[in-house]
Amino acid sequence: MSKIKIEIKWAIIFVIMTLLWMILENISGLHGKYIDYHLYLTNLFAIPAVWVMVLALREKKIKFYEGNITYLQGLISGIIISLIIAAFSPLTQWIISYVIAPEYFPNVIKRSVELGFFNSPAEAEANFNYKNYALQSTIFAFVFGTLTTAIAMIFIRKK
What we know:
It is a single chain. This protein has helices at 5-27, 35-41, 46-64, 71-100, 104-114, 121-127, 130-156. It is mainly alpha-helical. It has one domain (2-156).
Protein backbone atom coordinates (compact mmCIF):
# COMPACT_ATOMS: atom_id res chain seq x y z
CA MET A 1 0.00 0.00 0.00
CA SER A 2 2.87 2.38 0.73
CA LYS A 3 4.09 1.91 -2.85
CA ILE A 4 0.91 3.54 -4.18
CA LYS A 5 0.31 6.02 -1.35
CA ILE A 6 1.04 8.96 -3.66
CA GLU A 7 -1.30 7.60 -6.35
CA ILE A 8 -4.16 7.17 -3.85
CA LYS A 9 -3.60 10.69 -2.49
CA TRP A 10 -3.71 12.29 -5.93
CA ALA A 11 -6.69 10.24 -7.08
CA ILE A 12 -8.61 11.51 -4.05
CA ILE A 13 -7.47 15.07 -4.80
CA PHE A 14 -8.69 14.59 -8.37
CA VAL A 15 -12.12 13.36 -7.22
CA ILE A 16 -12.47 16.31 -4.82
CA MET A 17 -11.40 18.72 -7.58
CA THR A 18 -14.01 17.18 -9.89
CA LEU A 19 -16.76 17.68 -7.32
CA LEU A 20 -15.66 21.28 -6.70
CA TRP A 21 -15.67 21.93 -10.46
CA MET A 22 -19.22 20.61 -10.72
CA ILE A 23 -20.29 22.80 -7.81
CA LEU A 24 -18.75 25.77 -9.64
CA GLU A 25 -20.54 24.84 -12.87
CA ASN A 26 -23.82 24.54 -11.00
CA ILE A 27 -23.40 27.83 -9.11
CA SER A 28 -22.50 29.64 -12.33
CA GLY A 29 -25.72 28.45 -13.96
CA LEU A 30 -24.22 26.02 -16.47
CA HIS A 31 -26.65 23.33 -15.32
CA GLY A 32 -29.63 25.65 -15.59
CA LYS A 33 -29.95 29.19 -16.89
CA TYR A 34 -26.80 29.03 -19.04
CA ILE A 35 -27.04 25.38 -20.05
CA ASP A 36 -26.46 26.30 -23.70
CA TYR A 37 -22.85 27.13 -22.77
CA HIS A 38 -22.26 23.97 -20.74
CA LEU A 39 -21.26 21.89 -23.76
CA TYR A 40 -18.35 24.23 -24.41
CA LEU A 41 -17.28 25.48 -20.98
CA THR A 42 -17.27 22.08 -19.28
CA ASN A 43 -14.31 21.16 -21.50
CA LEU A 44 -12.20 23.70 -19.59
CA PHE A 45 -12.08 21.02 -16.88
CA ALA A 46 -9.25 19.48 -18.90
CA ILE A 47 -6.93 22.25 -17.68
CA PRO A 48 -7.07 21.44 -13.94
CA ALA A 49 -7.34 17.72 -14.75
CA VAL A 50 -4.02 17.74 -16.62
CA TRP A 51 -2.48 20.00 -14.00
CA VAL A 52 -3.39 17.61 -11.15
CA MET A 53 -2.01 14.62 -13.06
CA VAL A 54 1.26 16.44 -13.76
CA LEU A 55 1.58 17.42 -10.09
CA ALA A 56 0.95 13.81 -9.08
CA LEU A 57 3.59 12.48 -11.44
CA ARG A 58 6.10 15.11 -10.35
CA GLU A 59 5.53 14.21 -6.70
CA LYS A 60 6.01 10.52 -7.51
CA LYS A 61 9.24 11.39 -9.30
CA ILE A 62 10.60 13.53 -6.47
CA LYS A 63 9.41 11.74 -3.33
CA PHE A 64 9.30 8.09 -4.38
CA TYR A 65 11.95 7.85 -7.08
CA GLU A 66 14.21 10.57 -5.64
CA GLY A 67 14.13 12.58 -8.87
CA ASN A 68 15.05 9.69 -11.15
CA ILE A 69 11.88 8.32 -12.76
CA THR A 70 11.77 6.42 -16.03
CA TYR A 71 9.04 6.80 -18.60
CA LEU A 72 7.66 3.33 -17.75
CA GLN A 73 7.65 3.99 -14.00
CA GLY A 74 5.71 7.22 -14.55
CA LEU A 75 3.35 5.56 -16.98
CA ILE A 76 2.55 2.82 -14.47
CA SER A 77 1.99 5.44 -11.75
CA GLY A 78 -0.36 7.42 -13.99
CA ILE A 79 -2.27 4.29 -14.97
CA ILE A 80 -2.72 3.43 -11.28
CA ILE A 81 -4.02 6.95 -10.57
CA SER A 82 -6.35 6.68 -13.58
CA LEU A 83 -7.65 3.29 -12.42
CA ILE A 84 -8.40 4.64 -8.94
CA ILE A 85 -10.17 7.68 -10.37
CA ALA A 86 -12.12 5.41 -12.73
CA ALA A 87 -13.11 3.17 -9.82
CA PHE A 88 -14.50 6.22 -7.98
CA SER A 89 -16.23 7.59 -11.10
CA PRO A 90 -19.66 5.98 -10.56
CA LEU A 91 -19.79 7.34 -6.99
CA THR A 92 -18.48 10.74 -8.11
CA GLN A 93 -21.10 10.85 -10.87
CA TRP A 94 -23.83 9.81 -8.42
CA ILE A 95 -22.90 12.72 -6.12
CA ILE A 96 -22.91 15.09 -9.09
CA SER A 97 -26.20 13.78 -10.50
CA TYR A 98 -28.21 13.48 -7.30
CA VAL A 99 -26.63 15.89 -4.81
CA ILE A 100 -24.78 18.71 -6.59
CA ALA A 101 -26.91 19.13 -9.73
CA PRO A 102 -30.11 17.06 -9.69
CA GLU A 103 -31.66 19.55 -12.12
CA TYR A 104 -29.00 18.99 -14.79
CA PHE A 105 -30.53 15.97 -16.54
CA PRO A 106 -34.09 17.41 -16.74
CA ASN A 107 -32.68 20.74 -17.98
CA VAL A 108 -30.35 19.27 -20.60
CA ILE A 109 -33.04 16.86 -21.81
CA LYS A 110 -35.53 19.69 -22.26
CA ARG A 111 -33.04 22.01 -23.93
CA SER A 112 -31.57 19.37 -26.28
CA VAL A 113 -35.08 18.59 -27.56
CA GLU A 114 -35.86 22.31 -27.97
CA LEU A 115 -32.69 22.76 -30.02
CA GLY A 116 -33.45 19.72 -32.15
CA PHE A 117 -30.53 17.56 -31.06
CA PHE A 118 -33.10 14.88 -30.22
CA ASN A 119 -36.59 14.33 -31.62
CA SER A 120 -38.24 13.52 -28.30
CA PRO A 121 -37.61 13.66 -24.56
CA ALA A 122 -37.36 9.86 -24.57
CA GLU A 123 -34.47 9.98 -27.05
CA ALA A 124 -32.72 12.63 -24.97
CA GLU A 125 -33.31 10.66 -21.76
CA ALA A 126 -31.58 7.66 -23.33
CA ASN A 127 -28.45 9.82 -23.61
CA PHE A 128 -28.70 12.04 -20.54
CA ASN A 129 -29.02 9.79 -17.51
CA TYR A 130 -26.96 8.68 -14.54
CA LYS A 131 -26.21 5.19 -15.87
CA ASN A 132 -24.87 6.49 -19.18
CA TYR A 133 -22.83 9.26 -17.55
CA ALA A 134 -21.40 6.87 -14.92
CA LEU A 135 -20.24 4.51 -17.66
CA GLN A 136 -18.84 7.32 -19.83
CA SER A 137 -17.03 8.98 -16.92
CA THR A 138 -15.46 5.68 -15.85
CA ILE A 139 -14.12 4.93 -19.33
CA PHE A 140 -13.09 8.54 -19.96
CA ALA A 141 -11.25 8.79 -16.62
CA PHE A 142 -9.07 5.82 -17.48
CA VAL A 143 -8.45 6.70 -21.12
CA PHE A 144 -7.83 10.43 -20.58
CA GLY A 145 -5.69 9.80 -17.50
CA THR A 146 -3.54 7.27 -19.32
CA LEU A 147 -3.19 9.50 -22.38
CA THR A 148 -2.31 12.51 -20.23
CA THR A 149 0.30 10.44 -18.41
CA ALA A 150 1.79 9.12 -21.65
CA ILE A 151 2.31 12.67 -22.90
CA ALA A 152 3.35 14.22 -19.58
CA MET A 153 5.99 11.58 -18.92
CA ILE A 154 7.84 12.65 -22.05
CA PHE A 155 8.68 15.84 -20.16
CA ILE A 156 8.77 14.58 -16.56
CA ARG A 157 10.99 11.50 -16.93
CA LYS A 158 14.65 11.54 -16.12
CA LYS A 159 16.59 11.38 -19.40
